[in-house]
Amino acid sequence: MDLLGAAQNGVHPTAITSLFLIALVAVIGPIASRLLRGYIPDVVILLVFGAIIGPHALYWAGTEGGVDLLSELGLGMLFLLAGYELDPKLLRGKPGRTAWLVWACCLVFAFVLVSLAVLFEPGTEAGFAAKVAVAIAMTSTALGTLLPIVKQAGFLNQPLGRAVLAHGAVGELAPIVAMSVLLTSRSPLAAIVVLLLFAAATAWIGFVPQRILHRVPGLSRTFDGMNGGTSQLPVRGVFLLLLVLMAVAETFDLDVVLGAFAAGVVLRGMIGEDHPEVATALETIGFGILIPVFFVVSGMGIDISSVLSNPVLWVLFVFSIAIARGLPVWLSERFVPHGANLPTRGERAQLALYAATGLPIIVAVTQVATGSGLMGADLASVLVAAGATTVLLFPLIARVIGRDNRPAPEPRV
Fold it and tell me: What is the rounded distance in angstroms from the CA atom of residue 229 to the CA atom of residue 225?
């Protein structure tokens, strides 16, 4: 009650108070999700509670005093782990090329939908970059969120699981690249040149440590010997790699999300699957501390009154995401042969719903767009709420479809 009274009197919460409440929500989230049998993912719970305790509602917690920095590190860890989990094989071959082509079609389709919505909405104005920002957000796939769901459902290594991974990998990587090229003050050509320079710098940063370790075998053994205890050198090295590439991305005036994702790709190339203990430690740090902070703080940026005052726009965004991202995926799986097409209607519907499930990229895009003045805070709140709704509803509907399409057990003789 003292906290509520302080908020009502206009006293800003301290950083420690904010972190205490954020940590409390981070603990409540997975417990509540478990009690609800996983039907509501914990990330949705984190966002909702973040919105409730944030400045737009009770104002029990704020982002001052370094809380926003912890949130940005959480964003970095989320995309580092996404880059680390990305299997390059998924982006190659005919299924991979089809996934890239489908995403490009999704982006064009989403841009057309946004342009038509602006055209038919009286008094609404939006520039090209603003429309592109919304379109990019509508075409993302939350692969990091989907992986636990797919693993728990038990079809990760089946055709449906491989299709989800392929479209999810592209749906996570392509929007990040598109953000760096299209949501910038540079011309597209200049942005592409800068992106290529960043890729070259990333390749060099990844090549030098591997070369040193290859030429000095004793150094690798030394690192292995400092893997545990108070040293934890590999984990410290990965954290340094994350910050180096985020700093390089910032130097090139690119979004730090790209640097974090590149750090994950470089890390996979450096250690592969030879050091599972490093991946375990990173998941512990990321999903145990930093990533929940990012999602709760992202929820604190949601203006609940804006969302509730625009329920039609909220619902329209959810349907638009399903149409702009899910429909092209379904059509490609039905009519474009690539050698690994899903044979049944139920599996194609599941794939479309999983591919249209997006939240982390939506949060990242809205943060970039609001920071650069391309998007208002009210619209960003509604768009993030729509993304959270896709995480809540689409996997649940896909789960029901999968249950209904399971083959009936053979009758006993």
Answer: 10
Interior CA angle at 76 toward 70 and 82, to 5°?
140
Report all structural domains of the chain as residue ranges with CATH numbers, in order of start: 77-293+303-404 (1.20.1530.20)
**CA 159 – CA 393 distance, rounded (Å):** 23
Pairwise CA distance, residues 259 & 79, whole Å = 9
CA distance 85 to 118: 37
Our measurement of the distance from residue 375's CA atom to the centroid of its chain's CA atoms, rounded to an integer in Å, reads 19
**Measured distance CA(371)–CA(365) in Å, rounded:** 10
Take residue 335 and report the two structure tokens written for it.
Answer: 């009519």
At residue 274, φ and ψ (nearest 5 deg) are: -75, -20
Task: List the chain pLDDT tens, one digit each, 413 residues.
Answer: 444 444 445 567 899 999 999 999 999 998 998 898 777 888 888 988 999 999 988 999 998 888 999 998 988 888 888 788 777 777 777 888 898 999 999 999 999 988 887 766 555 556 777 888 889 989 999 887 787 777 766 777 788 888 888 898 889 888 888 887 777 767 778 888 888 998 899 888 888 777 776 676 666 666 665 565 666 777 888 888 889 998 998 888 887 888 888 888 888 877 766 667 777 888 888 888 898 998 899 888 888 888 888 888 899 999 999 999 999 999 999 898 888 888 888 899 999 999 999 887 888 888 888 877 878 888 888 898 898 889 888 988 988 887 766 544 444 44
Contact 395, 353 (CB under 8 A): yes
